[in-house]
Write a structure and sequence with these properties.
The chain is of the alpha+beta class. The protein contains 6 helices and 10 strands, in the order E-E-E-H-H-E-H-E-E-H-E-E-H-H-E-E. Strands 4, 5, 6, 7, 8, 9 and 10 form a 7-stranded mixed β-sheet that branches. A hairpin with a 2-residue loop joins strand 7 and strand 8. It starts with a strand and ends with a strand.
């Protein structure tokens, strides 16, 4: 129970009360324990947090999008060719602007999820079509690292009930992570199969694997392994935290495992729809 409570000096506090029954061996109620905790500062911190994320959305994201768009126009040569040094600086500025925009969007996504303000628009989705689309959309990103994307086998033609945009966001995060940490010339494999009354999707890489000391917090916020490779590859450290929350909101679960022969497998499972098989053709 959260109750506004006046203090003797006239200041109102918000207290959270917990009432616990005390029973004897015969299960007879003999008393209660009431505990009160002042959560005024906690609520104020949550209010400040909401104001901060609102500032990110309106005061940072809009001008940053305009800056990135301008840099992209410059980098396409629309306003003439730059000399090599200026072109390299403009490209670095565009990429780092995009990284900052990605971070802002990720923070906003997590804030919406945690506050319960993220609404999912669920629909019946043909999973095999979404997997094939995710390969097409992320191929150019993987090629930046010299990595090839492929389907390990033909995925089952099954329908899942999910939010298409958010499910694609999960796939993009998993594929981009796998591509970043794969060796140049390597490949990332996608697969899907029926499992436990649902369908399991797996994204496998052949990278260095996950350090043991990092495994317990891999799905945490701003979680990144402390290594030279991680710092060089970049990233916000929020992608896997977002994946976990989105998959769970869609009624599924997500985990990882060491890949046989080296690398890591990230898997998530979603419930399959009744009569979920898609007719061939």
């Amino acid at each position: 129970l959260k109750i506004r409570t006046p203090r003797r000096d006239g200041i109102d506090l918000v207290c959270e009360w917990t009432v616990t029954p005390l029973v004897n061996a015969e299960a007879t109620l003999i008393g209660v324990i009431a505990q009160g905790r002042d959560i005024t500062q906690q609520l104020e911190a949550e209010r400040v947090k909401k104001e901060f994320t609102s500032t990110l959305s309106h005061e940072l994201r809009t001008p940053l999008t305009s800056i990135i768009g301008s840099l992209q126009l410059i980098n396409t040569g629309m306003f003439g060719q730059l000399d090599q040094e200026a072109a390299e600086l403009a490209l670095v500025a565009e990429r780092n602007g995009q990284r900052l925009l990605d971070l802002i969007n990720d923070v906003l996504d997590l804030e919406r999820i945690d506050s319960g303000r993220l609404s999912l628009h669920t629909e019946d989705i043909a999973l095999h079509e979404l997997l094939e689309e995710s390969l097409v959309l992320n191929r150019a990103y993987a090629e930046r690292f010299g990595v090839r994307l492929r389907l390990a086998s033909a995925p089952p033609k099954v329908m899942v009930r999910a939010d298409r945009k958010r499910l694609m966001q999960v796939m993009t995060n998993l594929i981009s992570n796998a591509a970043k940490f794969s060796p140049e010339g390597g490949q990332v494999e996608l697969s899907a199969r029926y499992a436990d009354s649902g369908v399991q999707v797996t994204v496998e890489d052949r990278g260095p694997g996950i350090p043991k000391e990092f495994r317990s917090r891999i799905f945490g916020r701003f979680a990144q392994a402390d290594s030279a490779l991680t710092r060089r590859k970049g990233g916000t450290g929020l992608g896997l935290a977002i994946c976990k929350r989105l998959v769970e909101l869609m009624g599924g679960e997500i985990w990882y495992a060491d890949r046989e022969g080296g690398g890591t497998s990230f898997c998530f499972r979603l419930p399959a729809q009744d009569s979920a098989r898609v007719a061939s053709g």
